[in-house]
Write a structure and sequence with these properties.
Blueprint: H1 3-13, H2 21-24, E1 30-36, E2 41-44, H3 46-51, H4 73-87, E3 91-99, E4 105-116, E5 122-131, H5 145-154, H6 162-169, H7 173-184, H8 188-206, H9 211-217, H10 223-234, H11 238-245
Helix pairs in contact: 5-6, 6-7, 8-10, 8-11, 9-10
Length: 248
């Protein structure tokens, strides 16, 4: 029997199609989903149900993101889904800030993968979004890395080069990157981006300062670059985020 035959025989012997949702129901820090080519949910885990403020999985099945997430984030997610299906391309560990109904905000890394049908055409996508919780790493010794991280957090408006940060920690750039990945699941560059966007969110929520000045305070040379990165991470422009977060 070939490996292909064994594979086919195994899946045909299952009592029902395996979607993975029951496994991911057990993983509280990860959102899991399958969607069809139109971006409608066909399978979800319980974590996504709860974060959308729904009671049952059936409340999400058949819905697109724009029906479940606040605008314009919902449309941004659907546009991302369409690109995955249309271009047959995956998304790998994209750093995003998800805004859930009820006002909760969570940083995550998102993966999406196109799904092919029997004829080879793309019929949908699978995906996960895994929470980034630094608290999960408290048992790890930060050691030399703390000097670099403290410098990042104290100098977000400045030019931050990985080589310079590594020198502060007494490490090579590769060693620093590996330690930060172990602690936070992020590259050094992603850690810097998250810190800057978190500062921007704080300033946008609690001040009426010019967005151009906030861009400079968060280490972006111009408002256009800041807006592009903020929208990529949050799904909203800085102006739209301020409007949403300051609503009574």
């Amino acid at each position: 029997m070939t490996s292909t035959d064994a594979n086919t025989q195994f899946f045909e012997a299952l009592s029902k199609p395996f979607s993975g949702e029951e496994l991911f129901d057990l993983v509280a820090d990860t959102v899991y989903f399958l969607k069809d080519a139109e971006g409608c949910y066909v399978a979800v885990n319980q974590t996504l149900v709860e974060r959308c403020g729904k009671a049952r999985k059936s409340d999400l099945i058949g819905q697109r993101a724009e029906a479940l997430f606040p605008e314009p984030l919902g449309e941004r997610i659907s546009a991302q889904d369409r690109a995955v299906v249309r271009d047959n391309r995956s998304i790998q560990a994209q750093l995003e800030l998800h805004l859930y109904p009820g006002g909760n905000e969570d940083w995550c890394l998102t993966w999406k993968q196109p799904l092919a049908g029997a004829d080879g055409s793309i019929i949908g996508l699978s995906g996960i979004s895994r929470d980034l919780n630094s608290a999960t790493s408290v048992q790890l010794e930060l050691g030399q890395v703390s000097a670099a991280l403290d410098h990042i957090n104290d100098n977000l408006s400045a030019l931050l080069r990985v080589e310079d940060l590594a020198a502060l920690a007494g490490l090579s750039a590769y060693q620093l990157d590996q330690r930060v990945r172990t602690l936070y699941g992020l590259s050094v560059g992603q850690y810097i981006t998250r810190a800057r966007i978190e500062l921007a969110c704080h300033l946008l929520k609690r001040s009426s300062g010019a967005i151009s000045q906030i861009a400079l305070d968060c280490g972006y040379g111009d408002q256009t670059a800041f807006t592009r990165q903020f929208r990529r991470s949050v799904g909203l422009t800085p102006r739209a985020y301020r409007e949403v977060s300051q609503r009574p």
